[in-house]
Design goal:
16% of the residues are buried. This protein has a domain of 112 residues: Sandwich (Jelly Rolls). The longest helix has 8 residues. The radius of gyration is 49 Å and the shape is elongated. By secondary structure, it is mostly beta strands.
């Protein structure tokens, strides 16, 4: 509360003419509010509630060739002997008359061999699968052994396959024939599968 004494405490005229009366005001102090303290009681832990849920259902993946590898993971879903490609190579080779191209590899376990050759231009070629030990004889124009199912002579197109035991192998595309007069351009695809 404000009165004239607050504005002019040393001026007698202001003090006498003041019509404002002051009275001491009372400020009440609030009573403290009681704080509720909860009573400590023992609470029983409830038993877990079990909710019946459906058994998870197994998703069956088809296995067309029954080799134990689901078709979605099987590179050969229709061939029970093989499930995955372990080696693959594709190339277009130019093979001059009297020359050949070859691919060699080793395998520490049995595998399937597949090859496709397609002569795009030029003369017929020989596609020959042999053991590495017979390759020296081939190079020296001596008698050699070869896998009949992995070999085709004087061909322009062949799809070949053979079952191989562990070992070292060579696949040859040859334009080595005596009467070969043209350079051959050959698309070659070779793969091993297990």
């Amino acid at each position: 509360m404000i009165d004239s004494r607050d504005y002019a405490p040393n001026d007698a005229d202001v003090q006498e003419k003041s019509d404002i009366q002051s009275s001491p005001s009372q400020v009440s102090t609030p009573e403290p509010t009681p704080v509720a303290t909860p009573k400590q009681t023992s609470t029983a832990t409830p038993w877990p509630t079990f909710v019946a849920t459906a058994e998870p259902t197994a998703t069956e993946f088809p296995d067309s060739d029954y080799d134990g590898v689901a078709d979605r993971y099987d590179d050969f879903p229709d061939d029970f002997q093989y499930s995955e490609v372990v080696r693959e190579e594709r190339a277009t080779e130019v093979v001059d008359p009297g020359y050949y191209r070859f691919w060699s590899w080793e395998s520490d376990e049995a595998e399937g061999f597949v090859a496709t050759i397609d002569v795009q231009s030029g003369s017929h070629v020989d596609a020959i699968l042999m053991d590495d030990s017979d390759f020296d004889e081939f190079e020296n124009s001596e008698s050699y052994y070869y896998y009949t199912s992995g070999t085709d002579f004087e061909t322009k197109y062949a799809e070949l396959s053979a079952r191989l035991d562990a070992g070292s192998f060579v696949f040859v595309v040859s334009n080595w024939e005596v009467d070969a007069e043209e350079t051959s351009t050959v698309d070659v695809s070779i793969a091993s599968k297990r």
